[in-house]
Amino acid sequence: MGAPLLVRETPAHQGAALADGQENPMPFPVPHHGDAATARTRPGPAAPGLRGARTLLGALAALLLVPLPTANAAQPAASPKGATSSPLVPAVRSYPPNWLMGTHLTRGCAVYENFPMKGVRHRAWHLDRGARVGVRYNVGDRWALVQDRDRASQRPKVNPHYGFVNRSCLAKQLPLPSLQGVGNDGSVRRVDFNPVGDGRKAAHLRVSGHATLRDAVHAFVIGNLRPGDRFVIGTRTCVVHGPHAYVHGYAPAARRWGYVEATHLPDCHRNH
């Protein structure tokens, strides 16, 4: 018997997604370079003749530390191409105000449960022209991960309600590079589209219910699993702590590694 898989229940991943269907009202923060400059230039007791000069110098230093807008700062980013080996940081005001950018479809399109590629089973649903979606992140020039607003707004929610759609179907494009998304702290981070880990495969677990595959705990959705799908973990035994723990493994249905909530893995044993 190998060592049991202990999955630590953690708070939401930094830069991770909010709960499904929620939006982050926090706008993107503007760097407060002026605060640091003020702290460095705050004078002690000084003669009256020098106080005004030091205040003027402090104000000039703060202005020099604030980045000037670029020539294309007001323009939305063009369709991103490929992966981003070096982070692209557009001007703050070019980002969408919420982590899900609302738009609609300009024509009827399929929404795929998992990223469509060779070896992935065809699982999709259809959305008509005008259907409302929220764009989470882009995958290259062609695809985007979206939330089906109608499915997500129903009570209970219809699963899956996240999927991949051709970007040509969208009335508006998310102005972020490929595999970049906005987390619940308002910052942008890279989406780990295939978090392999150590790559070990030791035990096959059965999935119950409709589960989302995520790139980290409580984080970006990168795929979907159906009841009866397999999930392969790196140890012979699955032991979790707490009701909302996540388990790392490989999902053959999506041909992708990721994290699944343990509530969808009945073969996992809870360590009280």
In a nutshell, what does this entry contain?
With about 270 residues, the chain is α+β, with helices and mostly antiparallel strands. Among the domains are: about 1-15 and about 190-270, no CATH class; about 90-180. The protein has three helices and 17 strands.
Question: Could you characterize what this model shows?
Answer:
Helix 1 packs antiparallel against helix 2. With about 270 residues, this protein is an alpha+beta fold. It is globular and about 50 Å long. The longest helix has 18 residues, at about 50-65. Strand 5 and strand 6 (about 145-150) form a beta hairpin. Among the domains are: about 1-15 and about 190-270, no CATH class; about 90-180. It has three helices and 17 strands. It is about 10% helix and about 25% strand. The strands form seven sheets. It has a four-stranded antiparallel β-sheet. Strands 1-14-17 form a three-stranded parallel β-sheet, with no helix packed on it. Strands 3-4 form a two-stranded antiparallel ribbon. It has helices spanning about 35-40, 50-65, 150-155; strands at about 5, 100-105, 110, 125, 130-140, 145-150, 160-165, 180, 190, 205, 210-215, 220-225, 230-235, 240, 245-250, 255-260, 270.
Strand order of the largest sheet: 2-5-6-7
Residue stretches low in confidence (pLDDT < 50, at least 5 long) are 1-51, 59-93
Intertermini distance: 21 Å
By oligomeric state, this entry counts as single chain
What structural category do the secondary elements indicate? alpha+beta
The string of secondary-structure elements, in order, is: EHHEEEEEHEEEEEEEEEEE
Q: Kindly state the mean pLDDT as a whole number?
A: 74
Report Rg. Answer: 23 Å
Q: What is the count of β-strands?
A: 17
- The number of distinct helices, counting runs of at least 4 residues, comes to 3
Portion of residues in helices?
Answer: 10-25%
% residues in beta strands? 25-35%
Shape: globular
> What can be said about the biggest beta sheet?
4 strands, antiparallel
